[in-house]
């Protein structure tokens, strides 16, 4: 038997079910989808006496028209009562007609998870102890934007279209309704649904929205990645950005269509955000339900992919594009149960598993591989931060995924060769040089300042023929120049930190900064700080006073002070690069996911200034 298909039995006779496991004699096609002898593997919401479409109703009509139909569920079908064991005695549910999922295996005493279930299950006893309505806050308001039956229809329809597991669908339905019910107990149902959609999908704090703009997926939707010049705005686009900024600030909330027409063709982040908010505000309640439901269903079966949040966002985006496509709307037969798991998640799971485990004597054992050779969750996740990373996703014939229309990408995910896609985004070498790159400003604030302090306070170290009894002093030019070398020390630390960064971050990662410009600019500043000092020491003997050297040395001391202050404040990544610039989209991903700090205002900002002023005053006094 294939090791991928061997279950592992725990001491309590529970079973840990590997998601790649396939029981015999189940057969799978070339895409890993289960092959059924008939339609028994399909999950049909209209089967078993469930509500058929009304006469003349086209099943491919819009979602809102479809979901607006009044529910007519019969007791024999799978309906809301199947999703919960709450209800008065006799309520149909798991006790009478629940059928396990096609992919849920295990003995009758096993729950299908690692923890076995023992004892008898009495739904009547549960029903007497718990309220009849599991979601009272949501159902109590007759003005709820969507009924439980309509929400159930959304979950069932998505399960049919993508092949999600029924057990997972039930869990996610209950999870979704619990979220809605919790919020509806504190606010109106409309606000509960709107805030939940904002937190998951459309709001400024939603991780999906952050990723969508960081990876420039709005540009992909507008012009396509294959037609883009990544990270650059044309002169025409820059002019349009300036022109449209005022129009967006003065936009009438009641007439967003006019503003959208004005900013058409503007590819700036501000214009894209305005279009996004206009789109989110135009969504109907059921469309918001559908967005959240699809995300929860994708997340519910994501397995280890849950640890790669932006990878999951990419999967969700592909699924959403497919859902809105005519191909999906016109598809009559449902996807086999487990298609999403087998097509999308299993290949990624196997890649992640094979990085750490290998098969030895029919069982999985941990690989003897150092951490710097393991492609981990961060490496997988960071591929999806930039459009250049998404452009590296290829099929076996070297065709790129971005060359496929957006609505067709979801069905192609099962053909991606992930082993050829992912790579280490950081060279995890054990080296003390990390101390220089990661703490370069700490070193500058201490070493450079200490150099200046010692040079000015201990002239005996560089005084010609110094005699302690005479306490003869050096020339003023030499004292100024020696202290001014602190600026050169700061430049030298920055140069070493840049060279180390070159060795730590692979150049092929899209988030790697272009270090050549920074390196040569640092060399120039180093020469500016060091060159005049060499002139002071080489111009004349250290026993001969010179006005020229005195002036040059004094000026260079203040240049060195300015250099140290600038390098102490400015992060290494912000030196002579557009990394921290807000008017470019080149490094939006890094700013979003690694440099996103809450801004301080008012008294909070001044208190922060005061704290740091006190710290450095105490340090240098």
How would you describe the overall organization of this protein?
GO terms for molecular function: 1,3-beta-D-glucan synthase activity. It comes from Naumovozyma castellii. Pfam families: FKS1_dom1 (PF14288), FKS1_dom2 (PF23605). This is FKS1. InterPro entries: FKS1-like_dom1 (IPR026899), FKS1-like_dom2 (IPR056261). The protein is mainly α and about 625 residues long. Among the domains are: about 235-265, no CATH class; about 435-585. The chain is about 50% helix and about 5% strand. It contains 25 helices and 6 strands. It has helices spanning about 65, 125-130, 135-140, 150-160, 165-185, 190-200, 205-215, 215-220, 235-250, 255-260, 270-280, 285-300, 310-325, 325-330, 340-355, 375-380, 385-390, 410, 435-440, 440-455, 475-505, 515-540, 545-570, 590-595, 605-620, and strands spanning about 10, 15, 25-30, 35, 355-360, 365. The strands form 3 sheets. The chain has a two-stranded antiparallel ribbon with strand order 1-2. It has a two-stranded antiparallel ribbon with strand order 3-4. β1 and β2 form a beta hairpin. The longest helix has 29 residues, at about 475-505. It is elongated. The protein starts with 7 loop residues before the first strand and ends with a helix. The relative contact order is 0.08. The model is unreliable at about 1-25, about 40-55, about 55-75 and about 85-120 (pLDDT under 50).
